[in-house]
Amino acid sequence: MIETRYCGLELKSPVIVGASRLTSDIDSIKKAEKAGAGAVVISSLFEEQIQLQHYRHDEDMVQYDDWHAEMTDIFPDLEYSGVDEHLVWVKKAKEALNIPVIASLNAVTQSTWVPWAKKLEEAGADALELNFYSLPTDPELTASQIEDEQVKIVQAVVKAVSVPVSVKLSPYYTNPLNIIKRMDAAGVEGVVLFNRFFQPDIDPANLKNDYRYNLSTGNEYQLPLRFAGLLSGEIGASICASGGIEKADTVKKQILAGADAVQIVSGIYRHSVDLIGEINDELKRWMRSKGYESIKDFRGSLDARHNKDPKIYKRSQYVRLLLNPWEYIVRP
Keywords on this record (predicted)? Predict the structure, then answer.
């Protein structure tokens, strides 16, 4: 009843557990599957990890430069297996689950994206999620240069692998709709709206930088909702909403706006993995009450194309809210 199709994968539920510490060990991902998750996105592999492995490998090899060949083994005892362990972990995750396993890759350079996308595919991933988390630090780098490079990366990865490829993007593009359509044309089969950046903080009392894991809140769902509504029916790739997914009502809203699936992380941290089952059960009850037999029956029924007020997703609605705020305030 709540089956859906996302990124070329058949899911038994639209609820996907996003890449995080929640998907970094067998026990946790098996609990997610038992709770009713449609898929899991394995904790990300970062380019920094790969670079660190290469650095350690070079250091370990240099220490043998002055040794006679007979004084060492053929292969030195190298302690840099973190990245290789990640590939083994993907393989173990695939063997342990009956639901799709999506591998997340968070890189910067094309020389890393392509070979490691292939390695993750070879490890058994059912699909890939390219996580474009990269903050520009060069003021001379233009928006078009950044976007062109990302599209080239997508094209190269899609060409290199046979499994479906999705992208997880931030909302901080000049025109997110345009870059998403370009990536759709480049061959991605799924788009995750949106990536939540790490936000640094400062502790003024102790005069030091503060680093915290800030969970998303329930009111953050509206930004992906807006873009799901604008993209629905405009791209061939499936849509996954991410951010502020903490209850079944939010999942209903995202699907009505045009999402095929949702990703959840913070909600599980706050309420436990049982939240997945609660969302699935409530979604089924609501669908029966509305006479829906499948998600296809209502997905996108309130997107920008089908809404009775097509301006709801646009600037004119914003102006209306400012001019007549009392009509729209939700009171307790």
Answer: Flavoprotein, FMN, Oxidoreductase, Pyrimidine biosynthesis
Q: Would you call 182 exposed, middle or buried from its count of C-beta atoms within 10 A (0-12, 13-18, 19+)?
A: middle
Nearest to 129 by CA among 154, 112, 109, 160: 154
Cα 45 to Cα 116: distance, rounded to the nearest angstrom: 9
Q: What angle do CA 19, 38, 99 make, to 5 degrees?
A: 90
Task: Of 305, 304, 321, give the one whose Cα is nearest residue 313.
Answer: 304
Residues 308 and 175 in one domain: no
Q: The domain spanning residue 71 has which CATH number?
A: 3.20.20.70
The predicted structure's pLDDT at residue 62: 40
Q: Which amino acid is at 331?
A: R
Domain span at residue 314 reads 302-332
Question: pTM of the full predicted structure?
Answer: 0.84
Torsion of CA 311, 317, 319, 321, to 10 degrees: 160
Query: What would the two tokens of residue 277 be?
Result: 């089952």
Per-residue pLDDT tens for 246-266? 999 999 999 999 999 999 999
